[in-house]
Amino acid sequence: MQYLEKVLAEVKAKNPNENEFHQAATEILTSLKPMVERHPEYERTALLERFVEPERTVMFRVPWVDDKNRVHVNKGYRVQFNSAIGPYKGGIRFHPTVNLSVIKFLGLEQILKNSLTGLPIGGGKGGSDFDPKGKSDGEIMRFCQSFMTELYRHIGADTDVPAGDIGVGGREIGYLFGQYKRLRNEHVGVLTGRGLSYGGSLARTEATGYGLVYMTEEALNARNDGLNGKTAIVSGSGNVAIYAVEKAQSLGAKVVAMYDSNGYVYDRNGIRLEVVKQIKEVERGRISEYAKRVKGAEYREGCKGIWNIPCDVALPCATQNEIDGESAKALVKNGVKLIGEGANMPTTLEGIETFKKAGVLFLPAKAANAGGVATSALEMAQSSGRLFWTFEEVDRKLKNIMVNIYRNMDAAAEEYGMKGDYVAGANIAGFKKVAEAMLAQGIV
Ligand code: NDP
Ligand code: 2IT
């Protein structure tokens, strides 16, 4: 058996039932093939076997008390996957679907994404199967405090720097940071996505969505095209989706649909983002409200139908596997030109294949959504330098980073004879630096 196939078979055998982790590993390893063939030292040093095995996995109990004095227990995770190029870095997800497989797929993706940013950050991810929906502020705070009461001993500004992800935004980062500071007696940059009054960075809130759209525009510009006048669908209505819509609209795109986990809204006149922000950021409500408030907008139960709406550009910004083979076919049939992945692994392997066959321009998550973690690294730089950059300065750096990632993955795909295949280009460009750093550091 070839080296790559052997490693992939081992991943599946040694990590049974971790379907999301298998999916991410399959996508990555398969596309590294031409690179691995040029580097026999990878096999000699078991580089890929080490790459797919987390350096450390922490799993812990998170007990907490709700407003009615009932005791609950959730699972907590932090996977410290790879520190070859910098301290572990990556978000924390609170969602009932969180399990070890989900955290490991996210962690594996994060290693290459963080490498692509060009900044010195390794890869990690964490989370809990806690469901923040419908919880009071007090319950969220007590849960975050309990979570951090275990996590604090494993992280640190030069060791592992968590941030937000699904279900973890500014409010949760605040409670997590408060508890860390209390336990360690240190006010340091141990979490990113902090509030502006206690060490956060301007533009971090906007960064993932803006970054996604900067890369989308760059990819279109490279083909003498642009977002102006394009019809777009942005799935999700959380942090990434909202700021992707904001930037896409500012570049002249018409966003006609968004969703949350209950259903989608279709507004043929173009989504009114201030209404979405009010519902989602202020009221923490449901997207169905939008159709009650905006004339001409329709609400439909269920998510899948959104991909049947004709569009030029689709930006999936909710969660993994939201575009399956069938949805991909519907998008292609309706003439989609570009897919930009704001969420992590939002397209199934079958969906990716469908887009590839149809020649749809496909910007994979680890490149397209890297603006969030890149800006987190800028927050870390500001924290350690005790600096505070303006919005314009951070935004300018973010844009440069996204353009550079685009050019690097484009060049890597071409170098290996796969022009325009950005799944391969992003994996190869990201893996290059990680492999170099791992080889230089010996068998560790
Ligand atoms: P939020 O929690 O702010 O928003 C998540 C959105 O996705 C909500 O609208 C949520 O709906 C929806 N959603 C979640 N699960 C499902 C589901 N199973 N089916 C349909 N809709 C769903 O999270 P973020 O915006 O931060 O994250 C979105 C994606 O972007 C994730 O994949 C995350 O990993 C990725 N990402 C985030 C970054 C960041 O900086 N925040 C950086 C890079 C990637 P509901 O409210 O109903 O649950
Ligand atoms: O998936 C991701 O890149 C994030 N959730 C952001 C991680 C970070 O450390 O800012």
Describe the overall structure:
This protein is of the alpha/beta class and 444 residues long. Helix content is 49%, strand content 15%. Strands 9-8-7-6-10-11-12 form a seven-stranded mixed sheet, sandwiched between helices. Strand 6, helix 10 and strand 7 form a beta-alpha-beta unit. Helix 6 crosses helix 18, helix 7 crosses helix 8 and helix 9 crosses helix 17. The radius of gyration is 21 Å and the shape is globular. The mean pLDDT is 98. The structure holds NADPH dihydro-nicotinamide-adenine-dinucleotide phosphate and (2Z)-2-iminopentanedioic acid (2IT).
Small molecules in complex = NADPH dihydro-nicotinamide-adenine-dinucleotide phosphate, (2Z)-2-iminopentanedioic acid
For the largest sheet, list the strands in their spatial order: 9-8-7-6-10-11-12
* Main sheet summary: 7 strands, mixed
Structural class: alpha/beta
Number of helices: 18
Whole-number mean pLDDT? 98
Order of helices and strands: HHHHHEEEHEHEHHEHEEHHEEHEHEHHHH
Question: What Rg do the Cα atoms give?
Answer: 21 Å
Number of strands: 12
Query: What is the percent of helical residues?
Result: 40-55%
Strand residues, percent: 15-25%
What is the 3D shape? globular
- Low-confidence parts, pLDDT < 50 over ≥5 residues? none
Distance between the termini: 26 Å
Quaternary state of this entry equals single chain
